Amino acid sequence: MAINIQTPNGEITLTNDVISIVVGAAVTDNYGVVGMVSKHFFRDNLTEILKKENYSKGVVITQDGSDISVDIYIVVSYGTKISVICQNIQQAVKYNVEQLLGFELAYVNVHVQGVKID
C-alpha cells in the first residue's frame, strides 16, 4: 500500500518503505528505545532488533480516507519510564513525518513488545 497525496500540480505517491525509514529514524533516536521489532514479534518468535533496511516490518501504515495512522512496534530498555518514551516517540514521529514528507498523521500508536535488560 502507498500513500497518495493530491497537490495542485499532480499526485504524489509515497511507498511504505519511504515512510518506514522516516518513522524508524525518528523512533530509534529516542532515549530508552533499544530498537524496533517485527509486528509479529511473538508469533514469529523473532527476537532480533530490526536494522534500517527492515524498518517496514516494525511499522504498519494505514489510510482511512484522508486519515493516515502509524503503528510502531518497539523494545525499550529496562529502568526507563515507558510512558515518557512513548510520548516522545509520538511527538518525534508526528513532527518528522509532517516536516519531511508533508502530510499529517491522525494517530501514532506505539506498541511496546518487550523490555530488554542490559
What does this structure look like?
There is one protein chain. With 118 residues, this protein is of the alpha+beta class. The chain has a single domain, classed as Alpha-Beta Plaits (2-Layer Sandwich), CATH 3.30.70. It has 2 helices and 6 strands; from the N terminus they run E-E-H-E-E-E-H-E. Strands 3, 4, 5 and 6 form a 4-stranded mixed β-sheet that branches. A hairpin with a 2-residue loop joins strand 4 and strand 5. It is elongated. The chain starts with a strand and ends with a strand. The model has no long low-confidence stretch (mean pLDDT 86).
What structural class do helix, strand and pairing data support?
alpha+beta
Report mean pLDDT, rounded to a whole number: 86
Spatial gap, N to C terminus: 37 Å
Oligomer: single chain
What is the number of E strands? 6
Judging by the overall fold, what is the CATH architecture?
2-Layer Sandwich
pLDDT under 50 segments (min length 5)?
none
Strand content: 35-45%
Rg is: 14 Å
Count of the domains = 1
Helix content: 25-40%
Q: And the CATH topology?
A: Alpha-Beta Plaits
Keywords:
118 residues; 6 strands; Asp23/Gls24 family envelope stress response protein; Asp23; 4-stranded mixed β-sheet; elongated; Alpha-Beta Plaits; two-stranded antiparallel ribbon; 2 helices
